From TrEMBL:
Gene designation per UniProt: Chmp1b
Identification of the protein by name: CHM1B protein
Biased composition (Polar residues): 165-177
Transmembrane regions listed in the UniProt entry: none
Similarity field: Belongs to the SNF7 family.
InterPro entries linked to this entry: Snf7_fam
Spans annotated as Disordered: 162-194
Taxonomy, superkingdom: Eukaryota
GO annotation (BP), single: vacuolar transport
Pfam families cross-referenced by the UniProt entry: Snf7
PANTHER family the record matches: CHARGED MULTIVESICULAR BODY PROTEIN
Amino acid sequence: EHLFNLKFAAKELNRNSKKCDKEEKAEKAKIKKAIQKGNMEVARIHAENAIRQKNQAINFLRMSARVDAVAARVQTAVTMGKVTKSMAGVVKSMDATLKSMNLEKISALMDRFEHQFETLDVQTQQMEDTMSNTTTLTTPQNQVDMLLQEMADEAGLDLNMELPQGQTGSVGTSVASAEQDELSQRLARLRDQV
């Protein structure tokens, strides 16, 4: 019953993570609309909401993985209990068989014994795989500005002049470098004349 509840909780957390992913996509769409309308304050609010939804999705996913790992541990403990009982039964049978020294029965018992250990190894490996699949979250400092720029790029708009940080865009840079090249050429011609 507890194992079922743990597995159900893991699925519920996973579902919540997917819901947050959908909310994040909806917020990104709202960012684009706000940028197109030139409303940067609203765009920034939607960007903050999108990042919060993304972080919640990751947190739900991480929690789901942890609950899943606990469920795997519980499953292993239950299995270990069953294996222990089975092994006790096998040992009793071995005692009786060894007394009669029937090699065929001894071989069959050893096969059953090895099968129990193989089952345990598979379940232990599955638990270790589940535990190693948990991830950590790292968050860059300027996510909001990067998301705003990304959404503006997708919408085909130039945000660079509107951002309070005064970022320069690639268009401004290329014009400046072209002017610099032209000035450098003129300077070189003047030097040649002198």
